[in-house]
Input
Amino acid sequence: MKKDEFDIQYVLKHFYKVPIKSIMDRKIWDLPLVSKDTPIEDIFSIMTARRHTWVMEKKGSTKLVGVITEKDLLEVMAPKRIKPYVIGGVNLSSLLLGNVKTAEDVMCKKLIVIHPEDTAEKALEKMKSFRVRRLPVVDHKGNLLGEITIKTLIIQFRKVLKWYRITKD
Output
């Protein structure tokens, strides 16, 4: 085993234990936030510059109730093709059918969240298991505190690894 491989493994094992609160993005004012009653036209406007937006209970609230991703918009924009042999569970939300008017109509309500006390390891496990690139960081009442992304985790791990190598030499 090479020295660099050992360094990476050693640092990664310790990085896993880092609490999310010390590496998450806390700039709530910089996150894409909308209320659940935001018109769908405004959602399209926001999503031209962002890949996601967090949905709050109401304007000015930090109570997280959903998320909208590009995939969610694809679902409501694409024409619905209902196969005759499909039984139940068909999502009929569609712009074409006229039943998508607000953020609440298109948002994903099943949130995969992480808490500030959780570790980087738990965040990475959730991202991998649920195939997501970002997790909202919420308190135990469901209030949004920030977000953690795979990019943030990669950047922070790289910084820790670099610092470890500088201090070791």
